[in-house]
Amino acid sequence: MSLTVAIIGRPNVGKSTLFNRLVGKKLALVDDTPGVTRDWRAAPARLAGIDLTVIDTAGLEEAFDDSLEARMRKQTERAIEEADVALLLIDARAGVTPLDHHFAAWLRKGNTPIILLANKCEGRAGAPGLYEAFELGLGEPVPISAEHGEGLAELVEALLPYAPPEEVEPEDDDGAAGGTADGKPEPVRAIQLAIVGRPNVGKSTLLNSLVGEDRVLTGPEAGMTRDAISVEWTYKDRPIRLVDTAGIRRRARVDDKLEKLAVADALRVIRLAQVVVLVVDADAILDHQDLTIARMVLDEGRALVIAVNKWDIVTDRAGTLKQIDDKLQAQLAQVRGIPVVTMSALRKQKLDGLLDAVFNIYEVWNRRVSTADLNRWLAGMTEAHPPPAVEGRRIKIRYMTQVKARPPTFALWVSKPLDLPETYIRYMVNGLRDALDLPGVPIRMLTRKGK
Ligand code: GDP
Ligand code: GDP
């Protein structure tokens, strides 16, 4: 059973690009004979364990002569009928257009569930359109970049409620584990986990220790994108999906000459994950490349756990821990409280500690703070240390809300948002982290012009 998704939206928002991203490049090369009305393209894809049939509606509007609205409607109507869920794309760089509004209003009347995707959100250029997208009344927009492959983990998350429950692997001997009273497996969302790190730190060993050496890791099948490769297991009854096991196997063979490749690879994997375990070698702790990867994880808004491996061969344990702590304070000061665990992948020591840390940080990463609590806290913060004055007039912060979780993202309504200094925003973020219990996760603070 696959989930049928239709990619819809006005021309040029990136529908074909997303289609290609999901189904793999080869299928994108379709033969277009001018003047011939073609039907939509549909192709199978697999995204982090979900089987999809993806329908692309791009280009179909050219077959009709009516107004653009009417053409879009025709092109889309049938695709939506076929689909279990529709992905409505907007171009976050261009912002929400009247045509997007028109389209959304029409879609809201239908029965097909809509996931709103704000495309072209790589970098920061998409932010304004992302906010405007809330106005479409189709729920929280998911920021993605079809071209750069960003936001796929969030897309997976948005699709999961519609995905058919996966087959659950039979438990080895204790048949009691898992499942509901009537014996049916209960679909639970798996945490998307990535294991990254320099070559030879012990990533492959860790993977094997976590999921069992005998576990067969399947490679890409025909028609499958490389991003789809994953392995899933459970810990304390909670499913974990490790993304990109192929990357781990491949990287296990590369040597230090290919450092650059390893970093580029890590970035691709980080973007598929929710929680990233950065494995570091207890022998060469948090060197330049480790810190580069750690920063990438945080910049991408993922939850980070630092796993200090090969703890079995460390003699000066206290000294090593102190060294790590110093490095983190000096080099990753912007995110206080990043969880650090020590372990031995080879001896299977303290793997529970690692996974507990993964689930804890995942919970913080998902945390939502009520608007009432936020504004109470805001009043205290601005009173203790008011924002500076610009040209004789004090900048006023009027209001604050959490716009999303994963990672916790807040919006400040400010009288002069562009004048609010970066240091003040940092003061707010640090205060928020302590007062409202958000240790160790990236926090995003956005400013908007207050009414
Ligand atoms: P469609 O008409 O909706 O199918 O749009 P296309 O997929 O043909 O994309 C329209 C244009 O947007 C092309 O130039 C793409 O390269 C560009 N595009 C698509 N996705 C992205 C993205 O994530 N970021 C940026 N910056 N451009 C994108
Ligand atoms: P990868 O390149 O990050 O996947 O690293 P590997 O998993 O291939 O491990 C590199 C080397 O480190 C291998 O020789 C492993 O046996 C060794 N190793 C991995 N984990 C540990 C550990 O916890 N303790 C010790 N002493 N050696 C380890």
Brief summary of the model shown:
The chain is built from 13 helices and 17 strands.
Overview of the molecule:
The chain is 33% helix and 21% strand. It is of the alpha/beta class. It folds into three domains: 3-160, Rossmann fold (3-Layer(aba) Sandwich), CATH 3.40.50.300; 191-366, Rossmann fold (3-Layer(aba) Sandwich), CATH 3.40.50; 371-449, GMP Synthetase, Chain A, domain 3. The protein has a six-stranded mixed β-sheet, sandwiched between helices. Strands 8-9-7-10-11-12 form a six-stranded mixed β-sheet, sandwiched between helices. Helix 13 links the parallel strand 16 and strand 17 (444-449). Helix 8 runs parallel beside helix 9 (288-299) and helix 12 (371-384) packs across helix 13. It is flat and about 75 Å long. It starts with a strand and ends with a strand. The structure holds guanosine-5'-diphosphate (2 copies).
Task: Please render the helix and strand layout as text.
Elements: E1 3-8, H1 15-23, E2 41-47, E3 50-56, H2 68-82, E4 85-91, H3 98-108, E5 114-119, H4 127-132, E6 142-143, H5 152-159, E7 191-196, H6 203-211, E8 230-235, E9 238-243, H7 245-251, H8 259-272, E10 275-281, H9 288-299, E11 303-309, H10 317-331, E12 340-342, H11 351-365, H12 371-384, E13 389-390, E14 393-394, E15 397-404, E16 409-414, H13 422-435, E17 444-449
Parallel strand pairs: 1-3, 1-4, 4-5, 5-6, 7-9, 7-10, 10-11, 11-12, 16-17
Antiparallel strand pairs: 2-3, 8-9, 13-14, 15-16
Helix pairs in contact: 8-9, 12-13
Bound molecules: guanosine-5'-diphosphate (2 copies).
Residues 9, 11-17, 58, 119-120, 122, 145-148 line the site of one guanosine-5'-diphosphate.
